[in-house]
Structure formats: structure tokens, C-alpha cells
Amino acid sequence: MSDTSRATDQRLEQAILRLLNERAGRSICPSDAARAAYEGEDEGWRDLMEPARRAAARLVAAGKVEVTQRGRTVEIDGARGPVRIRRPR
């Protein structure tokens, strides 16, 4: 993994945790983290969607967040379609 990839991964993880703190009890979409971590003004944040989902998976493994789909906790690796990220209940 390159230093750039590591830096992006860290930015995404930090963005997820920061957004969850700011939204006090509400969930976020991985796209929220991708937009927050993207350093540009175009639609390039879309390239960070899969890395944002992987960042969420790492935070799940660390016990810091959980991922839901239609209100139910799911394993992000097996989830297809839209998911939400929230603090563990």
C-alpha cells in the first residue's frame, strides 16, 4: 500500500468518525465520508466510494461503528446497494 493510499484511508476513517460526532446519533452514508475526504472541487469524490466502504469495514472491525441496511445491522462486505454507518447501539 502506498503512502498516498494510507493517507486517503486515514482521511476517510477520520471523516467517518468526525461526521458521526457532528451528527450526534444520526447515521451517515459512505458518500458523505467520500465527499468530506476528497480534496478537489469536481466529482472525483466518487472514486472514493469503495475506499470509504473499506474504511467503514475497518472501523467496524475496531468496534467503532456499525453498518446498516434498511435499519438492520449488516456485514458491509456482503451488503449490496446503499448502506448507512452509525455508532454501535
From TrEMBL:
Family matches, as InterPro entries: DUF3253, WH-like_DNA-bd_sf, WH_DNA-bd_sf
Domain of life: Bacteria
One protein family per Pfam: DUF3253
Protein name from the UniProt record: DUF3253 domain-containing protein
Source species of the chain: Streptomyces tabacisoli
